[in-house]
């Protein structure tokens, strides 16, 4: 029963036990407690009893979906979801839905408030700026020499990638990369890779912040 003890430690005494490791651990236990031809009657019955209890856990569709997505977004175990296309589709769909909701909230905030007061404030600010014009900082010789290149750097690209294309690109890159070892910190990995995967890292944190021991059964 060493495997049961080790599995318990994985979700209770590890430094970073995340929800992404629940299903991989459960799969390990299933393999261990599968009855084989060489098992005695006692061992066979014991395995059936133990797995019969474990197999009843995490059966809720909502919880199961959450754990599948958490596993996919855990760079230590992502390969276990390679054959489950629906998981990756759900992750993509949830990010796009979240991004749309955030955009709508931002639009509401931009359009909210008292229009007259906002206009008066803008007019007052404009008058004040006219009375006290800001001085443009003088460029250094190096800035002046490369001003055209600096302008191209800060100007947004006209044909920027859409959010959907960006998510698809990140998913493709993430799925193609090799998994990290289980001793690595999954959350820290995403933090270090947040510039490479800005969309996926945002999603990953919302899953990996859930500790394994706190996941409902």
From TrEMBL:
Pfam families: Dimer_Tnp_hAT. The gene is LOC117532949. It comes from Gymnodraco acuticeps (Antarctic dragonfish). This is Zinc finger BED domain-containing protein 1-like. GO terms for molecular function: protein dimerization activity. Residues 170-214 form the HAT C-terminal dimerisation domain. It comes from the Eukaryota.
């Amino acid at each position: 029963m060493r495997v049961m003890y080790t599995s318990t430690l994985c979700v209770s005494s590890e430094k970073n036990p995340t929800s992404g490791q629940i299903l991989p651990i459960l799969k390990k236990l299933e393999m261990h407690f599968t009855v084989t031809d060489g098992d005695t009657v006692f061992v066979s019955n014991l395995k059936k009893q133990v797995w019969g209890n474990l197999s009843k856990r995490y059966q809720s569709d909502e919880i199961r979906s959450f754990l599948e997505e958490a596993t996919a977004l855990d760079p230590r175990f992502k390969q276990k979801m390679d054959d489950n296309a629906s998981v990756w589709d759900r992750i993509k769909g949830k990010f796009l839905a979240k991004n749309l909701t955030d955009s709508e909230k931002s639009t509401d905030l931009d359009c909210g408030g008292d229009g007259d007061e906002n206009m008066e404030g803008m007019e007052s600010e404009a008058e004040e700026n006219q009375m006290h014009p800001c001085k443009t900082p003088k460029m250094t010789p190096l800035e002046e020499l490369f001003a055209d290149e600096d302008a191209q750097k800060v100007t947004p690209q006209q044909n920027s990638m859409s959010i959907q294309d960006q998510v698809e690109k990140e998913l493709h890159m993430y799925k193609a990369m090799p998994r990290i070892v289980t001793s690595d910190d999954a959350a820290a990995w995403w933090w270090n890779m947040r510039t490479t995967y800005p969309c996926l890292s945002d999603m990953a944190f919302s899953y990996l912040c859930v500790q394994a021991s706190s996941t409902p059964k």
